[in-house]
Specification:
The complex is a heterodimer. Chain A has three helices and two strands, in the order αββαα. By secondary structure, chain A is mostly helical. In chain A, β1 and β2 form a beta hairpin. Helices cover 65% and strands 7% of the residues of chain B. Classes of the chains: A mainly alpha, B alpha+beta. At the A-B interface, α1, β2, α2 and α3 of A face α5, α9, α10, α13 and α20 of B.
C-alpha cells in the first residue's frame, strides 16, 4: 500500500509539471511572472517529494550490505 | 582587464587545490578514478552537482530565455529538478552498491558482467564515447569563448569595442533582420504565406508575423584581451592539470570551490544588476505583459505543449552520462545520496532561476545590440553594462567554474573508460598492472585534451552543438537499458543490443534530417493541411519533431520496446548471474579494485 501511495505521489507531482492553465497567463506574482513563480514552487515541491521518498522508501538493504562489507571482500548479494 | 586578472587568480586557486590532491594520491586505478570510493555526503553532493552543470546552465539558459521567455525554466530546469534526483535515487544508489560489491568502475563493466557478454559492453562503450566526446570538445570551446568575452575592451561610452571580422582581407558580411515599425512605433504585422497560400490558424484566421527588413551588414565581434584560441588553451591546460595530477580526488576538491562560486553567482548577479537598474524588475515585466509584441517573454507562447512535455524525458540522460554514473561510484556510503537527492532540485533552482530571470530582463535593458546566434552572451553583456569590473571578474569565474567542473569529469570519465574498458580489459591489466593503468590514464588525458583542443580550433561550433543536441536524447534513450539491467531479471543482452542499435540508428537518422532540412521545413506533412506534420524541422528552434514531439520521445519509447521484445524473444541470463544480481542471500567475494570480468572468447 505504501509503495502504491508513493508511486501515486510521484505521478501527481509529474502531472503538476504540465501546468497548461498558466500557458498564456502574463500576470505577475510579486516580481515574478506567474508561470515562472509556479515552476519555482514546483522545484521546492520536488525537493519535498524527494525528502518523502528518502524518509519512507530508502533502499535499506543497500545500507545493510554496506555495513556487512569488509575492506578485502565485497559483501552479500542484493 | 580586471575581470581577466580575477579569473586568472581563480584558475591559480583551482590548480593549487588540485596539487594538494596529487600529494594524497596513490598509484592504483581505484584511487585515481574514484578517490578510493571515499567521498563524504556534502562533498559528494557538491561534486555531483558540478559534474552535471555546464556553462549552458548559466549562459545557455539566459540566452534561451532571451529568445523564448520565462517558459524555459519549466521546460528545462524544473523538469530536471523532478527527473534527475529521482534517477539518482533509483539508479545511482544501485549502481553504487553494485560497484562497491563487484568492483565496477564504469557502466560498461557493469553491463558486461550483468549480461555475461563482452560485445554488448563494447557496443555501449562505442556509443557512449561517440556521444560524450563532442560534449567535451564543446566544453573547451565554451571555456575559450567565456574567457574571450569577459576580457572585452570597453570604449569611453562604457560599451564594448567592436571590430569588423575579416577573411582574406575582405569584411565578412552577414544577414541582419530588423522588424519594420509603423507610425505608432509598433511592429508592422503581415500575413504568413506558406506554399503560395496564406497560412491559417486552426480556427481559420490568417497567421501574422512581424514584417522584417533584411540587409547585409559587416559581421562584428568584440575586441578582447584574450583571443578564443588562447582562452580555450588556458581552460584546456587547467582542466588537464587538475585531472592529470589529482584524478577524481583533485577534481572533486576543486568542485567544492567551483560549486560554491556558481551557486552564489545568480543571487549576486541579481542583486548587483537589480541595484543598477533605473526601474524595479516588476516594471519591466509589467511592460512586457502589456505589450502584445513582447508578451511571449512572460508566458509560454513560444513553447508548444508537446515540446514542453517531451522535455521531461531529456533529464533521463543525466544518470546515463558516463561522468555522472562514475561519480555515483565514488561515494563512501550510500547515505551520501540522501542529502544529494533532496538538495538537488533546490540547487538547480538557485542557478537557473536567476539566469532565466536575467535573460528576460536583458531583452529590455541591454544597450548593446545582440545579433542572432550570439544570445548566449547576454548575461556577460549585462555584467559588462551593470557590474563593477572586479565583480564582473568574480562572476566570470563563476561561469568558468561551471565550464571546468563538468569538463574535468568528462575528461576523467573518458580516460576511465578507455583505461578500464579497453586497455586493462584487453590485456593491459595483466601486462602492466595497476600502476601501469594509472600512467596509461594520465598519458591518455594529455593526448585526449590535445586532440580535443585541436579539433575545437578547426571545426565549426554548430557541428558539435548538433551532436550534443542529440547526445542528450541518445543518453536518455539508453535509460531503459539501465533500468532493465537493474530491475528486470528477464532482460537479456540481445534486448540491450537491440536497444543500443536502435538508439544509434535513430541518432544517425535524426542527425541526417537535422543537417539537411532548414528551420521550419515540413518533411512529412500531416493528414490534413492544418494538422501537426508527421515529421518537421521545428520553427524557431530548428529541431526535428515527430508529430510535434521532440525526438527524445520516439527514441526513449522505441528503446524500451526493443529492450522488452529483444529480451522476451531470447534466452534469459544464467541462473548464477541472476543469483549474483538479484538474490538477497548470495555471497560473492571479489577483491577490491579487481572486478570479476574477463574478455569473452
Amino acid at each position: 500500500m505504501k509503495r502504491v501511495l508513493l508511486v501515486l505521489m510521484v505521478l501527481a507531482v509529474y502531472c503538476l509539471h504540465q501546468d497548461f492553465w498558466n500557458w498564456k497567463n502574463a500576470q505577475l506574482f510579486s516580481i515574478l511572472p506567474v508561470g515562472l513563480a509556479y515552476h519555482a514552487g514546483f522545484s521546492v515541491l520536488c525537493a519535498v517529494m524527494m525528502f518523502v521518498l528518502v524518509a519512507t522508501a530508502w533502499p535499506e538493504h543497500l545500507e545493510v550490505e554496506e555495513s556487512e562489507q569488509v575492506p578485502s571482500s565485497r559483501g552479500e548479494g542484493h | 582587464m580586471i575581470p581577466v586578472i580575477v579569473v586568472f587568480i581563480y584558475l591559480a586557486v583551482t590548480l593549487y587545490i588540485g596539487s594538494i590532491a596529487f600529494r594524497k594520491s596513490k598509484d592504483n586505478t581505484e584511487d585515481f578514478f574514484l578517490a578510493n570510493r571515499t567521498i563524504g555526503p556534502m562533498v559528494f553532493f557538491m561534486s555531483l552537482f558540478a559534474t552535471n552543470m555546464t556553462a549552458f546552465a548559466i549562459l545557455g539558459s539566459s540566452g534561451l530565455a532571451f529568445r523564448r521567455g520565462v517558459g524555459v525554466y519549466g521546460l528545462m530546469a524544473s523538469s530536471s529538478g523532478f527527473m534527475i534526483p529521482l534517477t539518482i535515487f533509483l539508479i545511482g544508489t544501485r549502481l553504487w552498491s553494485l560497484g562497491k560489491r563487484f568492483g565496477h568502475m564504469t557502466q560498461v563493466q557493469f553491463f558486461r558482467d550483468r549480461w555475461e557478454c563482452s560485445g554488448i559492453g563494447t557496443c555501449i562503450f562505442g556509443l557512449s564515447v561517440a556521444m560524450l566526446v563532442p560534449y567535451m570538445i564543446i566544453s573547451i570551446m565554451g571555456g575559450g569563448r567565456v574567457l574571450h568575452d569577459i576580457s572585452s575592451k570597453k570604449g569611453d561610452d562604457g560599451r564594448v569595442v567592436m571590430l569588423q571580422v575579416m577573411k582574406d582581407g575582405q569584411p565578412v558580411m552577414v544577414e541582419q533582420k530588423t522588424p519594420v515599425k509603423g507610425e505608432d512605433g509598433k511592429p508592422v504585422m503581415i500575413p504568413v504565406v506558406k506554399d503560395g497560400k496564406p497560412a491559417l490558424t486552426p480556427d481559420g484566421k490568417p497567421v501574422l508575423a512581424p514584417k522584417m527588413d533584411v540587409k547585409m551588414v559587416p559581421k562584428m565581434e568584440a575586441d578582447c584581451y584574450v583571443s578564443f584560441e588562447i582562452g580555450a588553451a588556458i581552460v584546456a591546460i587547467a582542466v588537464t592539470s587538475i585531472v592529470f595530477f589529482g584524478g577524481m580526488r583533485g577534481t572533486v576538491w576543486v568542485n567544492i570551490f567551483q560549486t560554491l562560486l556558481f551557486l552564489l553567482f545568480g543571487t549576486v548577479a541579481i542583486a548587483v544588476i537589480g541595484g543598477k537598474l533605473p526601474n524595479g524588475f516588476a516594471s519591466y515585466f509589467t511592460e512586457m505583459a502589456n505589450d502584445p509584441a513582447k508578451s511571449f517573454y512572460v508566458t509560454r507562447e513560444r513553447i508548444s505543449e508537446r515540446e514542453f512535455w517531451s522535455y521531461t524525458l531529456i533529464p533521463l540522460s543525466s544518470i546515463m552520462f558516463p561522468h555522472m554514473s562514475i561519480m555515483c561510484l565514488s561515494a563512501r556510503k550510500v547515505s551520501a545520496f540522501k542529502r544529494t537527492v533532496v538538495l538537488y532540485p533546490l540547487a538547480i533552482m538557485a542557478i537557473w532561476l536567476p539566469c532565466i530571470f536575467l535573460g528576460v530582463i536583458a531583452s529590455q535593458v541591454l544597450k548593446q545590440p545582440v545579433p542572432p546566434g550570439t544570445e548566449d552572451g547576454v548575461l556577460l553583456l549585462l555584467l559588462n553594462q551593470f557590474a563593477p569590473p572586479v565583480l564582473a571578474g568574480i562572476l566570470g569565474a563563476g561561469i568558468i567554474s561551471a565550464v571546468m567542473g563538468s569538463d574535468c569529469h568528462q575528461v576523467l570519465a573518458i580516460s576511465t573508460m578507455f583505461t578500464k574498458d579497453l586497455f586493462q580489459y584487453y590485456g593491459g591489466q595483466k601486462k602492466y598492472g595497476e600502476k601501469g593503468g594509472v600512467w596509461f590514464a594520465r598519458a591518455f588525458i594529455i593526448v585526449l585534451t590535445l586532440v580535443a583542443y585541436g579539433v575545437a580550433l578547426v571545426t565549426a561550433t554548430n557541428i558539435f552543438e548538433l551532436a550534443i543536441r542529440y547526445a542528450f536524447s541518445g543518453f536518455a534513450a539508453m535509460a531503459p537499458v539501465m533500468l532493465a539491467a537493474l530491475f528486470w531479471k528477464r532482460s537479456t543482452k540481445w534486448g540491450a543490443l537491440a536497444s543500443t542499435l536502435y538508439v544509434a540508428a535513430s541518432l544517425v537518422f535524426y542527425g541526417y534530417l537535422q543537417y539537411h532540412y532548414k528551420t521550419g521545413d515540413v518533411i512529412v506533412p500531416g493528414a490534413e493541411a492544418t494538422s501537426v506534420p508527421w515529421l518537421e524541422s521545428a520553427k524557431v528552434v530548428g529541431d526535428i519533431r515527430v508529430m510535434g514531439f521532440m525526438t527524445v520521445v520516439p527514441m526513449v519509447f522505441g528503446s524500451a520496446i526493443c529492450m522488452v521484445i529483444g529480451s522476451l524473444l531470447t534466452r534469459p541470463p544464467s541462473a548464477a548471474t541472476i543469483e549474483r544480481y538479484f538474490s538477497k542471500t548470495a555471497t560473492t567475494e571479489i577483491k577490491a579494485g579487481q572486478p570479476e570480468l574477463t574478455p569473452a572468447a
